[in-house]
User: Fold this.
Amino acid sequence: MAVGRRILALGSIVAVLACASVPPTASPPAPAPAGPREHVVRMGTDGSFQPEVLPIRAGDTVVWKLASRRDSVVRLTQPGQCASAVPWDDNVLAAPVGFAPSGIFATGPYGHERGFEVTRGKCRNDRPPEVVSPRVRPDGGRDVLCETAPKGVTMAETWQDPALTGVHIRLLWSDIQPARDTWDFALLTRELDLAVENGKLYTLSVKAGTHGTPEWIFSAGVTPLKFVDGPTTLDEGCGRPMTLGNPTERAYEEHYNRMLEELSGLVRSRADWYRALAYVRPNGANLFSSEARLPNRCLERCEVCNTRVWADAGYR
Assistant:
């Protein structure tokens, strides 16, 4: 059962069968309590509420017990206007969670990385397991963690873990927009459904950089810049070559902002997806992760000076 909790100001909430033919039945006002109270409103599978009318006072708490996590409570100006309610309406009863939600968020894989699966004995790709469980099963064997799940898929056990607040969903720009006018949100919608089904929150980031910058932007007004860089610790060599766009170019900004608008439209298209959103990390400029970091090494042993490439491109 899904539960929503809100502390409300002085006023009254009328839980109405807005799209049903049966009008609400008013209840006589209850005597004013001495202090703040907690009220419970239960929603049936047919959309009805019990109680139908609930007087509240300043400081009271109302707990909404919904029939499922996919349900929402929306404020209507008059009965019969259900079609006008939108998931992103400024609505204190059905809005996303509060600002800066705290808790533990697990990090999901990027779209080019395979997810993990728990299996028995050995991995089905015949590669060594990532982790071997310290616990011995009754049959004497051990569970192992294998990198054999589909790319970009978070483990079901992660979504189901009661110790976690949610999952950080890490997307690749090149995956969700493989061509200028082509969108693929199949992986994202799968993860959003799992968040809702398991009562979790989620965070979102979209990575450009390596394994994320779509090739089509370089034929759509963005200047390709050639870099060579590596991870934080680079004891030898120069890293790997990569082609990135300049995030300060107008064309790059327009393409990235358009992608964010499409992403926003998808998340806001369903109230349950929108309600489970904790925050979005938009940056548009990346190296190997979704953090706001760019190639910046200029080593004497390396042919490419990354900071010079940025300077010559007019990066500010």
Notes: Residues 105-113+157-312 form one domain.
